[in-house]
Specification:
Helix 1 packs across helix 3. This protein has 287 residues and is α+β, with helices and mostly antiparallel strands. The protein is built from nine helices and eleven strands. A hairpin with a 3-residue loop joins strand 5 and strand 6. The chain binds cytidine-5'-monophosphate (C5P). The site of cytidine-5'-monophosphate (C5P) has 12 residues, from strand 2 and helix 5. Cytidine-5'-monophosphate binds next to strand 2 and helix 5.
């Protein structure tokens, strides 16, 4: 059983406000990328074993892939500890706002469900995804989708027009609670009149970008460099620290990546991916 776990960017991310449960109310447009991890699942006679091609990834119960195994096992009403092996081939840079861990977690829910033939409904998988993390439900759906509430309630949208994407991953990471904490701190600085959410799915902005860039000015430099290198639009993705630029052609994306390399930043070139390639569930309407 082999599944691809596609990365995402947030084409737009609007923070509506803090919620009583410690999360923030969001309105965000997610977009799948061709860039993906690969997960290989296999039966095992006893215990769980998670291995990964990249160093620094926890291989124990902290890994969402392991948590997903426990959830599917329990949801299927099986006794004892889950039994299985999974090998993760990691290509999505970690802790960069590209959803690497969440994508793996979503792929694992589907992978274990198929491997063990537990046959959970799409609705049940979506519930488990929500319990794994706010970003996880999107990956069941893939393509272009609207995320509301904590970002975990997903409405599939038509695939956005295809674009080439340059990802610049700065040498520092930003933790998600930290980014939202900075948004809280800077609240007084937000402009009073908020713009309405744009109807065009390729309208690009991120309300977390200003608070993060205030603490990491390099982010604004990267965004400027992407725009100067010809990006149609550029913004931070998720809670950062990755900044992406959108381009009409591969050639333009590659040229921009070359110019950024001259300035000391490494640009990873990928493209947007439609739901038919990146979605994990067929019945996405149920998600
Ligand atoms: O669900 P996830 O593990 O991705 O969330 C990590 C943390 O990020 C939350 O505990 C919360 O502090 C912050 N968060 C938030 N609002 C969201 C999503 C995440 O404040 N919509």
């Amino acid at each position: 059983m082999i599944l691809r776990a596609h990365a995402k960017i947030n084409l737009s991310l609007e923070v509506i406000g803090a919620r009583p449960d410690g999360f923030h109310e969001l309105r965000t447009v997610f977009q799948s990328l061709a860039l993906h991890d690969t997960l290989r699942f296999a039966e095992a006679d006893e215990g769980m074993a998670v291995s990964c091609s990249a160093p620094g990834v926890p291989l124990d119960e902290r890994n969402l892939v392991w948590k997903a195994a426990r959830m599917v096992w329990e949801a299927a009403g099986r006794g004892g500890e889950p039994r299985g092996r999974v090998r993760i081939t990691k290509r999505i840079p970690a802790q960069g706002g590209l959803g690497g861990g969440s994508a793996d977690g979503a792929a694992a829910l589907v992978g274990w469900d198929r491997l063990w033939r537990t046959d959970l409904s799409a609705g049940r998988l979506a519930e488990l995804a929500r319990a794994l993390g706010a970003d996880v439900p999107f990956f069941l759906c893939g393509g272009t989708a609207l995320g509301i509430e904590r970002g975990d309630v997903i409405r599939p949208l038509d695939d956005a027009p295809a674009r080439w994407v340059v990802l610049v991953v700065p040498p520092f990471g930003v933790s998600t609670p930290e980014a939202f904490g900075w948004w809280d701190e800077d609240r007084g600085r937000q402009p009073a009149g908020r713009r309405p959410p744009p109807a065009n799915p390729l309208a690009v902005f991120n309300d977390l970008e200003a608070p993060v860039a205030r603490r990491h000015p390099e982010l604004a430099d990267i965004r400027d460099a992407l725009e100067k290198a010809g990006a149609e639009a550029a913004a931070m993705t998720g809670s950062g620290s990755t900044v992406f630029g959108l381009f009409g052609t591969r050639r333009a994306a590659r040229a921009a990546s070359g110019r950024l390399a001259g300035a000391g930043w490494t640009g990873l070139v990928t493209r947007t991916s439609p739901r038919s390639r990146a979605g994990l569930l067929e019945h996405v309407g149920l998600v």
